[in-house]
């Protein structure tokens, strides 16, 4: 079996205590469910003398619904996905979360861990032995990006399924550091760099995610489509998360479209979203918007499926998500890619 | 020499014909409860006092000379106990006598990323890992070979200093009958070039082995192995100890599929380390290492050419076929010589083929070695053949089922390449799946995006020849009985999940009339059990089963004699059933089985019987005739329905109808389990599985690595991807099998991949001439079709290979005698072309070789 390296494991009981521990040890790493961190440590992607667990912090627990939805960072994916209110009011979020990995991992994995999950690349998500045999790569210990050898930056792709959907729904993230806290739109938590993919300091703890009430099913049409090889377990090789707001006449007043796994951060398909403003949700406008979503997406040869084909699929999947959100029939073949959120 | 299996004639039948009580009924597998409760002890579950751990340091470069090894830093890790390097293993090994090309640790050169170089032992697994990481190996890189084409283009430097030529491990060419005449006589010729990507077994259990030293230089190895007997032989050779001092026990395997049928480096290393350190030593491979051990499906590029004739009754018949295969073998021989022959051998047993030519080449490449995976060498050409036939059906306007039904090979015949076909249930299999799926009504008529495909297959019920030439039984069973009434059954077979333990117990229980719980099994232990060659080539039910029948019948005879005498009734009237031995005409007169054994033990003394099995001789006598013969062949047919999205190329299997000619089910539930497992594995191969490799840009790096040696990224279907399967078992008992049973472990996989390709054609009208079928291929072919180009995705051409002079073998219909007519060593291409051609040792083959006379008749035919 691959072995975990030795490290000091700390389990603070309050947020303050946790913040203090991080302040004292800048190299320490946070862990929540550990479904991303432990495998990464086993493969020596990340090195840590100290690991601080967030699972005992009462402040980070649970999910709370009133006007909007407040998700504590350590809320379990399984709990969110099966919550009746989440399913009723933010069904596309439930779908996105239900598409994450497999039941055992959703029982362990947290929403905070999911939005902070490491970027992925098939040159990188390998054992240290394997990486040694390619001379490593830019993301860790090497100097070349093998995906694009002339690239000065790492092009590993964002892997979170909840992130594009939460961004589309306009979620806010609250971050707490030893020296204070801030609340930012979730998309601002990310930056376009496969290594430093999070625009936050390492001593900042993500405590909550806030999904606005105006993004619920009563006000907003949303949908999540995920392309992957198998009906379970697999990370997205492309996902399309859309949220549409219309006025009483059926014209689009606001649109947010985010794509997963085709960039180092959730990619905003701004042109596509902008195009829809002021238009009715017809098959033609949606098809045109989907076409516009192709441009900002950069599928690379660093995950499953042929990269070029994934590019074509950006249009197909965005269109499918838009049609589903608009209530139009979806002809695209989907069964293996979209989990059914059991009633 | 063992007695042949005794055929019981009615006169000497000890009891009147009775319905079997157990055989053919669904009974719970004998190891089922232990497996689901976790009581089964797999190799990794074993632990011994003072046990330590070994970790292998594997090559990080694909092809290089080892300059030096520096253990300095590694030695300093606390807990380290010792090291082994290539110097400790001067003697090579390998599964086939003709390919003794592996060393437990590489002595001078590494041939792929993953080749083991150093072994580190330490008191804990952590320490072994840490020390292994600190071992420094200095390599001098050599040019690498990543494909058959590169091997053809790069004869030097050689990956191995043996083989037929340059980096070609094996080159074969054989012509059976008048092939060119067949083509000349054909109404139409069809040609296809087809590619089948390699893939791996992916057993749930990673390989694990524990070695325990004993006094007097003895050692016991527990291992997850399908072939403890062959591991025993390899250990004997490499350790240089008498075989009697080495004991190999195969633990229950958590899946094998062919991936645990070679002797492996790690097994030899722990045995040696245990002897060196004088304490138990264990190794459990990581998942990545399992991918590196590999021995999986060879990637094969194929070219198939068939001549057909339209008969006056509307049927189509084959006049001749030429099949060429190019196998990417990876870095070592493994079973590769056999695999090469297998890509050609079984093309003839499904449909009538009066003339056949097979040419195969296997190349060495700097990748993990390929070997046998479920279907060993036959799924690739079967895929090619069945897709090819679908095209012939489309062109000739015949329904694919009728095309096949009109050209079926006949039972009790000998094929052009001298394989003896016995019972042959393919016709019934086709009828079953055609009826079940509504193929005749629905094929070609489903709405766009929906399609049905049909394909067939056949497989061996055990290879006719053992891996090393010998005259001994291929399976032995021993039964010990005593006054307890319990029945202990000993056999060298290895339970790998396929249910062989249950088959063994059921056969003995049936014949002795006892219940399964009265049977105690002792299996797969080279010290305690009679030799069985192992769980490969679908041989166990037939071979072990026949040996078990013989041993049990001998026991039954002895008991009947003693009981008959005690009860004063003719022993021929005694019935063994329900735990009793009683008079058929007066069931109340009898003894309990225990009392019956007591009577027998009193009469004859300590009781034990044995049974042996040797397959019948094959009529083929030409060089290479050793691969393909089997006591019987199983047949399967499948219809698969798919849906295809023309906008994305994504496709899904919706339903599988599969029929399998099993001869007779020993246990239908186990048979169905194997059928469904085969379908699942076959779907995995055609949907997604591939052993893909990455080569980094050559001006920057020499790397050549497995693309994703992990269970997450090597895609294999999950529950969520598995469609419903309807299984039909076709029962037509085969006289060669125990109770008429044939194999099921491998055959049902074969029709799955081509049935899918054919279904995709029915759905959207494009041909995907390769497997797996990725959505981008379907989309590309659809785009080509829309543009009016060839509606196909697949390889363009077969490489230029010099196959040399072909071996000319007259067919039975030509009056041949099973031998080649031009088997002159000097006339065949290179001196390196190994004389054996099969798996027997070179010396043996040479001794057997007879020079035949070149007849003018066949020479003219060429
Ligand atoms: C086989 C497999 C399949 C998977 N499939 C999917 C998939 O389909 N989709 C998907 O999205 N993910 C997938 N994952 C990844 C992972 O399981 C999920 O993303 C999960 O939600 C991670 O949550 P966690 O709590 O386990 O994270 P952890 O492993 O505990 O943490 C992940 C990262 O986030 C950081 N972190 C965690 N919590 C916080 C916080 N509150 N503040 C700041 N930083 C924090 C950690 O330091 C760490 O770097 C898969 C993982 C595996 C092993
Ligand atoms: S994208 Fe490039 S740098 Fe980033 S992980 Fe992959 S190979 Fe490494």
Brief summary:
Chain A is α+β, with helices and mostly antiparallel strands and 343 residues long. Chain A has helices at residues 15-24, 37-42, 77-82, 84-89, 91-98, 103-108, 111-115, 128-133, 162-168, 270-276, 283-292, 307-326, and strands spanning 8-10, 29-31, 50-53, 63-65, 69-72, 172-177, 180-185, 205-211, 221-227, 238-246, 252-260, 267-268. By secondary structure, chain B is α+β, with helices and mostly antiparallel strands.
Apparent shape of chain A: globular
Give me the number of helical elements of chain B: 21
Summarize the helix and strand pattern of chain A as letters. Answer: EHEHEEEHHHHHHHEEEEEEEHHH
* Second CATH tier, the architecture of the largest domain in chain B: 2-Layer Sandwich
Oligomer: heterodimer
CATH topology-level fold name of the largest domain in chain B:
Aldehyde Oxidoreductase, domain 4
Briefly, what CATH class of the domain at 59-116 and 157-214 in chain A? Answer: Alpha Beta
Shape of chain B: globular
**Quick one: CATH class of the largest domain in chain B?**
Alpha Beta
CATH homology superfamily of the largest domain in chain B: Aldehyde oxidase/xanthine dehydrogenase, molybdopterin binding domain
Number of helices of chain A: 12
Mean pLDDT of chain B: 94
Q: How would you summarize the topology of this molecule?
A:
The complex is a heterodimer of chains A (343) and B (862).
Chain A: E1 8-10, H1 15-24, E2 29-31, H2 37-42, E3 50-53, E4 63-65, E5 69-72, H3 77-82, H4 84-89, H5 91-98, H6 103-108, H7 111-115, H8 128-133, H9 162-168, E6 172-177, E7 180-185, E8 205-211, E9 221-227, E10 238-246, E11 252-260, E12 267-268, H10 270-276, H11 283-292, H12 307-326
Parallel strand pairs in A: 1-3, 2-3
Antiparallel strand pairs in A: 4-5, 5-8, 6-7, 6-8, 9-10, 10-11, 11-12
Chain B: H1 32-37, E1 52-58, E2 64-70, H2 72-75, E3 80-85, E4 109-110, E5 116-122, H3 125-134, E6 136-141, H4 148-153, E7 168-176, H5 179-185, E8 188-196, E9 208-214, E10 218-223, H6 228-239, E11 246-250, H7 265-277, E12 281-284, H8 287-293, E13 300-310, E14 316-328, H9 336-345, E15 356-363, H10 379-396, H11 400-405, E16 413-414, E17 420-421, H12 426-437, H13 439-442, E18 450-460, E19 475-481, E20 487-491, H14 500-512, E21 519-523, H15 540-567, E22 574-577, E23 580-583, E24 590-592, H16 593-604, E25 607-613, E26 633-644, E27 651-663, H17 668-687, E28 693-695, E29 704-706, E30 725-731, H18 752-764, E31 767-768, E32 770-771, H19 775-786, E33 792-793, E34 807-809, H20 842-848, H21 856-861
Parallel strand pairs in B: 1-12, 7-34, 8-32, 10-11, 14-15, 20-21, 27-30, 31-33
Antiparallel strand pairs in B: 1-5, 2-4, 2-6, 3-5, 7-15, 8-13, 9-10, 9-12, 13-14, 16-17, 18-26, 19-20, 19-25, 22-23, 23-24, 26-27, 28-29
The structure holds flavin-adenine dinucleotide (FAD) and iron/sulfur cluster.
């Amino acid at each position: 079996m691959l072995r975990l390296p030795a490290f000091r494991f700390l389990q603070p009981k309050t947020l303050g205590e946790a913040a203090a521990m991080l302040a004292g040890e800048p190299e320490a790493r946070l862990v929540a469910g550990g479904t991303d961190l432990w495998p990464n440590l086993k493969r020596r992607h990340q090195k840590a003398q100290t690991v601080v667990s967030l699972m005992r912090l009462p402040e980070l627990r649970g999910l709370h619904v009133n006007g909007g939805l407040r998700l504590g960072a350590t809320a379990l994916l399984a709990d969110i996905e099966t919550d009746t209110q989440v399913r009723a009011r933010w069904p596309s979020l439930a779908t996105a979360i239900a598409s994450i990995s497999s039941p055992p991992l959703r029982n362990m994995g947290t929403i905070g861990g999911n939005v902070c999950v490491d970027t992925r690349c098939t040159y990188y998500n390998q054992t240290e032995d394997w990486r040694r045999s390619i001379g490593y790569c830019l993301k860790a210990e090497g100097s070349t990006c093998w995906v694009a050898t002339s690239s000065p930056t790492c092009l590993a792709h964002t892997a979170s399924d909840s992130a594009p959907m939460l961004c589309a729904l306009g979620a806010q993230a609250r971050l707490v550091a030893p020296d204070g806290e801030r609340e930012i739109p979730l998309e601002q938590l990310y930056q376009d760099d496969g290594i430093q993919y999070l625009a936050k300091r390492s001593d900042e703890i993500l405590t909550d995610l806030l999904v606005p009430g105006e993004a619920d099913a009563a006000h907003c049409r949303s949908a999540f489509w995920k392309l992957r090889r198998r009906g379970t377990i697999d990370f997205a090789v492309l996902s399309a998360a859309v949220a549409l707001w219309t006025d009483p006449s059926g014209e689009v007043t606001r649109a947010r479209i985010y794509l997963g796994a085709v960039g180092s951060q959730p990619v905003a398909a701004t042109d596509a979203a902008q195009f829809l403003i002021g238009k009715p949700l017809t098959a033609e406008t949606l098809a045109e918007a989907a076409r516009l979503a192709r441009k900002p997406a950069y599928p690379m040869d660093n995950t499953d499926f042929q990269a070029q084909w994934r590019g074509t699929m950006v249009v197909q999947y965005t269109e499918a998500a838009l049609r589903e959100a608009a209530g139009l029939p979806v002809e695209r073949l989907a069964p293996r890619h979209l989990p059914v959120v059991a009633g | 020499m063992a007695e042949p299996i005794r055929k019981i004639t009615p006169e000497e039948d000890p009891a009147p014909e009775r319905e079997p009580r157990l055989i053919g009924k669904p009974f719970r597998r004998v190891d089922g409860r232990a497996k689901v409760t976790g009581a089964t002890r797999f190799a990794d579950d074993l632990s011994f006092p003072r046990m330590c751990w070994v970790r292998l340091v594997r090559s990080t470069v694909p092809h290089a000379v080892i300059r030096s090894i520096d253990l300095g830093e590694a030695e300093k890790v606390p807990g380290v106990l010792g090291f082994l390097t290539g110097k400790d293993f001067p003697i090579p090994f390998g599964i086939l006598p003709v390919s003794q090309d592996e060393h437990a640790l590489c002595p001078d050169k590494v041939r792929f990323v993953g080749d083991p170089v150093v072994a580190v032992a330490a008191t804990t697994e952590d320490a072994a890992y840490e020390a292994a990481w600190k071992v420094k190996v200095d390599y001098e890189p050599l040019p690498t070979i990543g494909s058959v084409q590169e091997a053809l283009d790069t004869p030097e430097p050689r990956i191995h200093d043996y083989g037929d030529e340059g980096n070609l491990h094996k080159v074969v060419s054989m012509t059976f009958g008048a092939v060119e005449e067949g083509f000349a006589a054909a109404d139409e010729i069809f040609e296809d070039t087809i590619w089948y990507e390699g893939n791996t077994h992916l057993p749930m259990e990673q390989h694990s082995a524990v070695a325990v030293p004993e006094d007097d230089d003895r050692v016991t190895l527990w291992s997850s192995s399908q072939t403890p007997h062959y591991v025993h032989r390899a250990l004997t050779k490499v350790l240089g100890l008498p075989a009697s001092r080495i004991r190999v026990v195969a633990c229950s395997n958590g899946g094998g599929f062919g991936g645990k049928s070679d002797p492996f480096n790690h097994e030899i290393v722990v045995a040696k380390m245990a002897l060196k350190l004088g304490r138990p030593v264990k190794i459990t491979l990581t998942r990545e290492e399992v991918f590196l051990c590999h021995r999986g499906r060879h990637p094969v590029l194929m070219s198939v050419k068939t001549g057909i004739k339209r008969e006056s009754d509307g049927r189509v018949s084959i006049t001749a076929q030429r099949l060429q295969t190019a196998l990417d073998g990876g870095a070592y021989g493994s079973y590769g010589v056999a695999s090469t022959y297998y890509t050609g051998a079984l093309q003839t047993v499904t449909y009538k083929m009066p003339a056949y030519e097979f040419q195969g080449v296997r190349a060495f490449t700097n990748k993990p070695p390929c070997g046998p995976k479920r279907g060993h060498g036959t799924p690739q050409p079967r895929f090619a053949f069945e897709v090819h036939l679908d095209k012939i059906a489309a062109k000739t306007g015949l329904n694919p089922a009728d095309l096949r039904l009109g050209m079926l090979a006949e039972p009790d015949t000998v094929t052009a390449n001298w394989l003896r076909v016995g019972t042959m249930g393919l016709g019934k299999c086709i009828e079953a799946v055609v009826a079940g799926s509504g193929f005749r009504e629905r094929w070609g008529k489903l709405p766009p995006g929906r399609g049905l495909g049909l394909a067939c297959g056949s497989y061996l019920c055990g290879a006719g020849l053992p891996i090393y030439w010998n005259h001994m039984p291929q399976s032995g069973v021993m039964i010990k009985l005593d006054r307890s009434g319990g029945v202990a059954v000993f056999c060298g077979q290895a339970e790998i999940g396929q249910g062989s333990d249950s088959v063994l117990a059921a056969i003995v229980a049936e014949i002795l009339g006892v219940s399964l719980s009265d049977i105690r099994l002792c299996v797969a232990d080279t010290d305690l059990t009679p030799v069985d060659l192992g769980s490969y080539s679908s041989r166990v039910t037939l071979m072990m089963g026949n040996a078990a029948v013989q041993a049990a019948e001998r026991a039954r005879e002895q008991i009947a004699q003693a009981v008959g005498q005690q009860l004063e009734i003719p022993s021929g009237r005694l019935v063994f059933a329900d735990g009793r031995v009683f008079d058929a005409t007066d069931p109340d007169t009898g003894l309990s089985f225990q009392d019956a054994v007591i009577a027998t033990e009193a009469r004859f003394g300590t009781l034990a019987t044995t049974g042996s099995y040797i397959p019948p001789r094959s009529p083929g006598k030409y060089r290479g005739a050793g691969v393909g013969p089997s006591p019987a062949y199983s047949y399967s047919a499948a219809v698969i329905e798919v849906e295809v999205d023309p906008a994305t190329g994504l496709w899904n299997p919706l339903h599988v109808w599969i029929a399998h000619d099993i001869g007779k089910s020993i246990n239908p539930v186990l048979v169905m389990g194997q059928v469904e497992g085969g379908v699942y594995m076959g779907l995995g191969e055609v949907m997604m599985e591939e052993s893909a490799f990455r080569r980094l840009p050559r001006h920057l790096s020499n790397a050549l690595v497995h693309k994703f040696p992990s269970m997450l990224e090597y895609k294999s279907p999950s529950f969520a991807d598995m469609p419903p399967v309807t299984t039909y078992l076709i029962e037509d008992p085969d006289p060669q099998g125990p109770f008429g049973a044939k194999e099921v472990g491998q055959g049902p996989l074969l029709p799955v991949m081509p049935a899918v390709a054919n279904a995709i054609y029915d759905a959207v009208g494009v041909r995907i001439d390769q497997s797996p079928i990725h959505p981008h291929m379907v989309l590309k072919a659809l785009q080509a079709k829309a543009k009016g180009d060839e509606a196909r995705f697949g390889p363009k051409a077969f490489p230029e290979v010099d196959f040399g002079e072909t071996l000319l073998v007259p067919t039975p219909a030509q009056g041949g005698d099973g031998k080649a007519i031009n088997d002159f060593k000097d006339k065949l291409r290179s001196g390196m072309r190994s004389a054996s051609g099969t798996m027997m040792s070179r010396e043996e083959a040479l001794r057997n070789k007879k020079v035949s006379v070149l007849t003018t008749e066949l020479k003219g035919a060429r």
